[in-house]
Amino acid sequence: MDALNTIRPELLFLSPTDVSALTPFLYLVLGALLGIFASVLGRIQPKWPVFLISIVTLGLSGMSSFQMLNDSSLPLFNGMMVSDQFSHFFNLIFVSSAIITILVSFRYLDYEWIQ
After folding, report:
1. How far apart are the first and last CA of the chain?
2. Exposed, middle or buried by CB within 10 Å (0-12, 13-18, 19+), for 94?
3. pTM of the shown model
4. Which of 10, 13, 30, 64 has the most neighbouring CB atoms within 10 Å?
């Protein structure tokens, strides 16, 4: 029972290779936080800032995933997550579908707010 109650410090540390493997997800989290702050704190209509922040951060996430397509497999968080070619390929699919969704739904806000 003691093994379950102790925290192993080596599991709390992220090496530089771990951080580089997590960059696509860090871009997405940063973009989400910036989008929330832009929509809440902005004195102008939040449509344009949130749109631009979303496109830029999704683009950065996609580019970093594309650059890591040929990297070797790397277990993260004590094996709970794996950064490999398969995960980066699907990250590219999800990021591209999110970009397409944002581009298609941009004009929807104009129609929704008018009525």
Report:
1. 61
2. middle
3. 0.81
4. 64
